[in-house]
């Protein structure tokens, strides 16, 4: 990850008219990275934000279902969907 000072320097040099290749060469950063930073106006992208669609499972619920279902992941998956309305992939439990 490029630190904020270098990001602002890249954007500043671009606004001053320096070509992308020269910025990349002088700051020892890949041209594609320089291009991405310029497209983001030198700001840190929001790609680091948490997922909005992430499903949070209660550990106590999964533990109690594990006891009820005898440790069978397939049955735990079925109970989570049927009784608790949690739509998760089977591979999440394995």
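-> sequence recovered:
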């Amino acid at each position: 990850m490029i630190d904020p000072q270098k990001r602002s320097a890249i954007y500043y040099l671009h606004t001053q008219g320096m070509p992308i290749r020269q910025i990349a060469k002088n700051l020892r950063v890949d041209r594609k990275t320089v291009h991405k930073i310029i497209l983001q106006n030198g700001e840190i992208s929001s790609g680091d934000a948490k997922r909005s669609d992430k499903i949070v499972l209660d550990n106590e619920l999964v533990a109690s279902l594990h006891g009820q279902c005898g440790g069978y992941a397939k049955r735990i998956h079925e109970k989570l969907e049927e009784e608790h309305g949690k739509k998760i992939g089977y591979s999440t439990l394995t």
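The chain has a mean pLDDT of 89.
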